[in-house]
Predict the structure of Ribosome biogenesis protein-like protein Ssf2.
Amino acid sequence: MARRRTKKRTHVGANNGPSGRAVPANKAANSPKSMVIRIGAGEVGPSVSQLVKDVRHMMEPGTAARLKERRGNRLRDYLTMAGPLGVSHLMLFSRSETGNTNMRLAITPRGPTLHFQVEKYSLCKDVRKALKHPKGGGKEYLTAPLLVMNNFTSPPSQADSDNKVPKHLESLVTTIFQSLFSPISPQTTPLSSIKRVMLLNREPAKENDGTYTLNLRHYAITTKATGVSKPLRRLNAAEKLLHSQKSGRGKKGGLPNLGKLEDVADYMIGNDGEGYMTDATSGSEVDTDAEVEVVGTRTRKILSKRQRDCPRVDGKNKGGRNGVEKRAVKLVELGPRMKLRMTKVEEGVCTGKVMWHEYIHKTKEEVKQLDKKWEKKRQEKEARKKIQRENVEKKKAAKGLGAKDRLEDDEDEMDVDEWDSEGLEGDGEMELNEEMEERGEWEDEEEEIAAG
């Protein structure tokens, strides 16, 4: 019997990862996943819609890159599907009536939520137009970017005040942004898998200023060998291209055109003929501060102890260790750019008790009153749930359901209750019950529920 063919190019189950090995199931399940959503699709405008697409591209591969929103979709719809899909973060973009662009970063299913106002932003296409040699469209998006955060916490010399962000909120914001991507291990993470950098820099706060502003940048990491002239690098790149492909026609970066030259030495020396060009004489932009030593990953012949001790006379290993080369690291911006100013922090998913507000500052007595108010709401909600559970039990007993059926129904209800936080059913349910209590309708409803 013939062996069944396994598709390896389009199916997830194939071993088509960067290293040729399948990703472990537990590692894929534990990695953070995000959804970048437009709230009010079709009403935010084309610029914000393109910004959402660019942010999705930046958050790849752990995001829904081809998510389609509808006008009828609400926040509750996305939160309901976040659990089964394993989504841990929501990035919600919206536009207010005054034209301000807002972004909310929430952790599912119970929060907290960070509210930001997008003061300035630049799309990827605008960043590419501004660059002389743009980069993108390659294999950079197969792995998550490296997250770099700067100046997120205030120095201990600054004293806390009512207008400034408290220390515990600074650590909370740091933890939320750190959880966007999987943590890396310097011992096990291969350097070749780090292709991009997402930089978050907090602007230093002014005196007596309680603003919390972040600048977001997205870069691609490029490297090139140092100490080698530009013509020689082009020849090496062309040789690799010819060896890796059957035909190099129509490909950029092929063999240079030497038809107008009498000898290849003229190409290596240069038009002026003053001598062999190096990085210093060819005018190439190489930053010596960004030079690093990279160990070669290609296979090498295993030498005996006698061969290793024997000094080499051919001069191939002169000027450095075996298999180690110096490379210059350069960052090329990919976009998008965003300037985010934090305005509010809430406990739940886009609802709940306000932990911090940029414009509204409350005294300790007002904070205590708010805590009592939220505690009262929580107790009333628990009482309503208890009455509803008792009512369901009475109906089950009246229908004559067995113990096994009751147990299955209880498990289903527990799953629903886990997602019944302040950002799901509690959002509309609490408002409706408060209105009924004000009109005095809840007492009649409570008597009907108790009566069965």
Remarks:
- The CA atoms of residues 239 and 366 lie 73 Å apart.
